[in-house]
Sequence to fold (1184 residues):
Amino acid sequence: MNVVLAKTETAHAQSDMLAVARDRLPGAGKVADTRRQAFEAYARLGLPYRRIEDWKYTDLRVLMREVLPLAAAPDAAAMKRAATALKLHAIAGVRPLVLVDGVFAPTLSETAGLEKGLGIRTLREALEAGDAALLAQLFSPDSSDAMVALNSAMMTDGVVIEIADGAVLEQPLHIVHIASGMIPAAMFTRSLIRVGKHTTATLVESYIGAEGTKAYQVHDSLVVAIGDGARLDHVRLIEDSREAFNISSAVVTLGANAHFNTFGMNTGSLVSRYQAVIAVAGEGSRVETNGVNLLNGRQHADTTLFLDHAVPNCSSREIFRAVVDDRGHSVFQGRIIVRPKAQKTDARMMTRALLLSDEAEADNKPELEIFADDVTCGHGATAGALDDSLLFYLRARGLSEKEAQALLIQAFVGEAIEQIANDALRELAVLAAQRWLAARG
Amino acid sequence: MAAVQETVDRVRRIDVDQYRYGFETLIESDKAPKGLSEDTVRFISAKKNEPAWMLEWRLEAYRRWLTMTEPTWARVHYPKIDYQDLYYYSAPKPKKQIGSLDEIDPEILKTYEKLGIPLREVEVLEGVVRPEGERRIAVDAVFDSVSVATTFQKELKQAGVIFMPISEAIREHPELVRKYLGTVVPTSDNYFATLNSAVFSDGSFVYVPPGVRCPMELSTYFRINERNTGQFERTLIIADKGAYVSYLEGCTAPQRDENQLHAAVVELVTLDDAEIKYSTVQNWYPGNSEGLGGIYNFVTKRGDCRGNNSKISWTQVETGSAITWKYPSCILRGDNSRGEFYSIAISNGHQQVDSGTKMIHLGKNTTSRIISKGIAAGVSQNTYRGLVTAHRKATGARNFTACDSLLIGDKCGAHTVPYIEAKNSSALFEHEATTSKISEDVLFYCVQRGLSQEEAVGLVVNGFVKDVLQQLPMEFAVEAQKLISISLEGSVG
Amino acid sequence: MSLLEVKNLQVRVEEREILHGLSLTVNPGEVHAIMGPNGSGKSTLSHVIAGKPGYDVTGGEILFKGEDLLEMSPDQRSAKGVFLAFQYPVEIPGVATMTFLRTALNAQRKARGESEFSTPDFLKKVRSVAASLNIPQDMLRRGVNVGFSGGEKKRNEILQMALFEPSLCILDEMDSGLDIDALRVAADGVNALRSPERAMVVITHYQRLLNYIVPDFVHVMSKGRVVKSGGKELALELEASGYAQFEDAA
Fold:
């Protein structure tokens, strides 16, 4: 593929896209200006490709080729398909906040009876209201990454969640992204969750495609601010259509003595990329970021984490597991930076890949950048097949090969899944893994 | 904590200016005109009496180089190099044809004496006799750009081993040189390797014939001497089927205020059942305490395990140079071949190190092992960058990697950038990395037992790097251990 | 002249005063036991005598053989003959015990202006000392304390004590983590080193150790002071009645 040509085409197609979509993008004045700047940044950069170090293993010019036009707002038929899909993926006891084809769907969401201290708006409302502080936070993701820039330019809707200081939310919040359009198109969403001081909250994000949806594109981003002494538990489940693309970014900031526990599981989509920047900005904070990729067919899933330790006395743990079958391709890039003042940082990262086929691929790039001397930092990475002697032992006890594999694979991903604090959500991840294993046959 | 403060104070007082090997030899040299052009390339080729094919090879590389840009991905920063402001060739002026060691310029001999290099055969023997039994080293000394003497030629000749300056090999063994030169590091490989291909001045050539175990360690001492002379060695070592050779490379350079460019290329080839062990101790001038001067060391070293059951092992102790950009790599092409990389990289003062390896598994049941020890002190930056990859057909590939970093003081940085690519299910990769500092408790324990702070640090560091030191041939291990202490002298007072 | 004179020692750690004017005099040949409940400042005293960083001496003085110990760096104190047997000896991976012993011994000798041991002489000396303490050669080849059991670590401390021949040995909670047999071996090692020129300060929470290393003097510490001193019978008294009676005295 001619790279120069591809870039020109992409930039061209995309500048048309902005013009076409302009009327549907909320926010005037400053918001519109910021969108245009982000847009220009994207046009300059074009789709990320392998020569961009952060995208070395996920060349969107090859894998995605182009950004599709903005999805149409869902019509009645689309809403019906979405409602059906939602039922299939419903989680008991959570508060659903649903985005259908990139637009907030009040009829499928629960916005009534909010717990004390909980405020929920749509991104559209927030952008149109134009509150300067909130806008600054909404536009905080860094447009030096092309896909973040594109998202900043094109975001149409999302959920803005604000939790007051001291609130204790019993009910998990569940943002559900549903693609329902029969014509492949792109959705651009951004959500924000502000967790007040000394607050606890749980956020689940699901990405699903209604029956019959094909190669749609999800372009999502999430802004998270966790206040002093607060805790957020976060679970992401990617169960998109097997032909879909999911490009998501997250920017997370922690105050002092804060705690962020996040887990991502990817069993869906054809090509996915999740890039998170987690900045530990207050002393005494903890981050646990864990994930599991279960891939087969020609699935490609990339998790790229950047953990930024800027202050002393914080800890972070990353546990990542990939199980790759057929011609699947799993990518894990984990970068930990410990800045000069961040003494007593305790940062660990462990990434392991299990390859079930000779055509599967797992690439790991666990990076350490250490500028402070009084720290304990380390990473480990392994890649390999299932242990033959264990398989044989299980088979000698009467398990079929698939059963034995399934047992070992469950144990393998279990180390990451165990890190989910919420029992119901942990169970959800276990079931997702079991579903994937059952589908293997 | 008091002890931390003390360490910091000492780091601040770094006195790298007292570089032990900073002296200059006063001899006339024969230089090419400043700058780089086709004429420079032709001048060098003519000086070497090279055949036409060699000149053509160089010119092709030069033309390719003109189309390339300097790489920027490494974590090193330096002012832009003006390639037209360098000399590309400098040879000691031959006073007459050299027939024996006695005829070598005494100034040059003195330089080697100061470096402790046993050039004369007698000295060689005396210098390396060890209680465990006699071991000998043949030295091919590169003084600036020309090999001025080789020793032990006769004995090597009897064994059928060819060990000579590459410039001579081009004339005397053109068939071997043409067959292998540029086959491991192609002329188009990277900016610095391409530059080297165009202007390389000299270096060593080794060929060990089938089934021969080289009767002694081969050694080259590099030494950059002339002001503003880029030094571009080219080394080619071939171990034919079932052959074995151990090659030692040591480098020291005199003190300079201007930066000096060094862009060497080393190519190793092992055929079936052959083994090459390549050891380096590098302590070129690192620049002064303000970060001025020092060598820019942009090296391309690569080994090709071309034959089945062959083995290439790289061991390096890197303590010098202002900038080190170096990734001795192994292409594990033959089935059951093995690659090893053992590294100690110490950075102090303003030094910047970006070094590591690539293990490229292509053949079946290939194995590799990487042990890297990085030590950062002063305001230096020390990066390990490594690639391990197993391709589809490399079934049964195995890699073990351990890279550990040690920080001394809180103004330096230690970084780890591994790329681990598994492309078939039977590959098994294990990688671990840690970063730590010398524990206050350990230091206090040692100091309580009467060691000075400096001795305590030296003791701990020597323990930290022991796994790698053990890989060095004994003669080098002793020198390397001394060097480590010297480099750390700066960091802890 | 006394070997060690601690006069009215006041020590702070991060603004908190741990020792509030402690005095202690130790003469050559004497064995002193310092007893006291947790947090009474026993270990602080041993650390300050050895010069561990992190303690602020805000008042008082420590004289060792008449010289101001507080002016000396920890290694100088060591060369002068102060030996601290650590409560928790650290592990030093990659540094063989033998290498460590030789390096330390020669460093001390050098600081005193004595000649360094030749390798054969050193080996002979270590082997004979190790044999007397039942320390196998294999242990000497391993990294310092790496993978050693609690008893092995303590024996390694005593080995060093025997090798370095200090004039003052401070044994900080030597009995912690040892079973009775290991304790007996360690105590025998210590007793063998008792001599008219050498003094010992044995710091312990329990009287048990003093059955094996019998002190000439016992001092009870509470809240950063010596609250009572006496002969070896004081330890038995404590065993019977506990530390509570001294909590108020402090």
Remarks:
- Chain C has one domain: 4-249.
- The first helix of chain C runs from residue 42 to 50.
- Chains C and A do not touch (no CB pair under 8 Å).
